[in-house]
Specification:
Structural class: alpha/beta
Largest sheet: 7 strands, mixed
CATH topology of the largest domain: Rossmann fold
Number of domains: 2
Oligomer: single chain
Shape: globular
Order of helices and strands: EHEHEHHEHEHEEEEH
Amino acid sequence: MNRIAILASGGGSNADKIAQYFKDHPTIEVGLILTNRSKAGVIEVAKRHDIACYYITNAQYEDQAYMLDLLNECDLIVLAGYLKLIPSYLIDAFPNKIVNIHPALLPKYGGKGMYGKHVHRAVFEAGDKVSGPTIHYVNEQYDEGAIIAQFSTDISACTSPDEVAIEVLKLEHKHYAQVIESLF
């Protein structure tokens, strides 16, 4: 069985969709969810899907042996709204086995501080008519890894960054798990 570890910092809507998608999959399972926030909504997602979940402190995250031990049975690490930079020791241990979803069409609107509402506000204020998520491999820099897939939607009718966010999230939920599946 191929095992996925999901790293998330927030509510966990993408983690929830991924867990649903792989619930009865014959060869892929979500085996672990890690979060860096003790009150993250993704903890409830893990409970609902009966997936092992751990809150990781900054000290634990920096402890290479601890993290590699937690992830040693995982074949792919999936970031789903995880807001910390992935350390080089994890990238070295999982080459081309860490993927992220970014809520814009990279390379536009990427980099440190460009996540969630900040991205959607930037897209909206720039007057872009199209947006959508980018799924990419993770490297040592925020949002600079090789692009795996992008999906776009017309946002010209959106009247706020919140409306842009809703449209992009629909595509994230529709496509992320399928792209993950294609990596095995």
